[in-house]
Amino acid sequence: MKVLQPDNLAEALRLLVEPDGTPVPIAGGTDLCVHWPARDLDNTRFLDLSRVAGLSRLTLTHNALEIGARTTYWDLICAADAAKAFPLLAQAARLVGAIQIQTRGTWAGNIANGSPAADGVLAMMVYGASVVLQSVRETREVPLDEFFTGYKQSVRRPDELIVAIRVPRRAYTFEWLAKVGARRAQAISKVGVAMTRSENGWRVAANSVAPHVCRCRTLEAALNAGRTFTSPQEVRSLLSADVAAITDLRSTAEYRERVLSRLIFYRLAELDKPSGHV
Amino acid sequence: MTDLDLSFTLNGKPVRLHVRPDARLLDVLRYDCGCTGTKEGCGEGECGACTVLLDGLPVNSCLVPAFQVAGRSVETVEAVAPEVTGPLNRTGTAQCGACSPGIVVMTRWLREHPEVLQDATLRQFMSGNLCRCTGYDSVISGVASVLDPKETAGGEGTSA
Ligand SMILES: Cc1cc2nc3c(=O)[nH]c(=O)nc-3n(C[C@H](O)[C@H](O)[C@H](O)COP(=O)(O)OP(=O)(O)OC[C@H]3O[C@@H](n4cnc5c(N)ncnc54)[C@H](O)[C@@H]3O)c2cc1C
Ligand code: FES
Ligand code: FES
User: Fold this and answer.
1) Chain A residue numbers touching B49 (CB-CB < 8 A)
2) Among A20, A242, B55, B133, which residue's beta carbon has the most beta carbons within 10 A?
3) Which of B43, B58, B130 sits opposite A103 (nearest CB)?
């Protein structure tokens, strides 16, 4: 095993294009270290991001929140202004593992890891976040909802690092996130859903019901058109165009689609009550 | 694999070691530093038995590669003051004791950072410390008794 420990971004990016082969970036290690002892690490080369200067910022401006590549869940929880401006990010941060994971796990790692169950991705997606990718050649910004191309697949090239995540500030009239796991804490999502409504319309995202965290655009379009629902089944029929739940060790496809549609239906039903207008 | 030359601060004292490049902080503490108080439960971040403070924040040392620890400060269960462990000994917080080192370190951290409990409950903060023996109620009441000695129902010798 070999570890490369650059202290600046230019050097880190250069190491990604060295002829010896592409090293694996490591930030908080909460995904990469899980099977560490069982892995043959002999031929692995890691690019340690922990010493690269300037990657742990969390900047809230008038227009946007910028999350650095090494910014952790706990950093966001502790940044009162950012947590207040983006309550679903704070909620998702507290739902990731437990405190010992939140102090190490990064938002960028959650995206790069590409798990369909990622909770941070879910919250960032309904806020219209974009991913800033940088290589020795260029810097580009990709909307998070166009970042994933399949199970653990994304548009990120091996020579690129996620250097930041940008979350635009908008006025929201509705923000909601729900996660269903085997227990309330320290559990990977069986089904997760988040919804926001701003002047740009509804955004709905779901996790653990498709090969990657995804937007539910058919449902969004229906909500934008003012559609209301009289049963969870109606929500479910619409969602079938958006999600493709599978049966795996954590849950069944039937359970996931049923719970997802019921979560959404009953939350929307609350809005129709006299006190719950959007 | 060439050894990793590693210097960091352990419980307030500088240490310098040569370790395997793929060593985890947990391994370095137990096998190279002789700090065997820190336990390995699951080895994959779930149970919290291996909790230590890294630059003052609780982390699972089984998920921290040693190479990320250079130049930083690590505090383990060995450095926890008796005011923390004393009440835990009297409240049934430990049965088999496998989870206890992590619980003790978390208790110390919460005692030094009472402000974090304004936005989340004690149970939420302790949710990453699994215990197969106690059923958790005595863990929570034990930790609570350290954080606020007056609150201990039937606590012994805790009145100020
Ligand atoms: C016990 C436990 C519970 C967990 N619970 C949850 C949970 O509830 N919800 C959830 O969503 N996740 C959970 N996770 C997963 C994990 O904590 C998160 O995905 C976390 O955000 C990963 O960030 P990291 O910095 O630790 O990633 P690392 O492990 O360092 O890296 C993860 C991946 O991202 C790549 N990478 C990291 N940074 C960059 C970068 N800047 N540019 C390009 N690639 C990069 C790495 O090469 C690797 O492939 C849990 C993990 C554990 C061990
Ligand atoms: S041994 Fe580290 S969390 Fe279980
Ligand atoms: S006392 Fe046995 S695991 Fe907690």
Assistant:
1) none
2) A242
3) B58
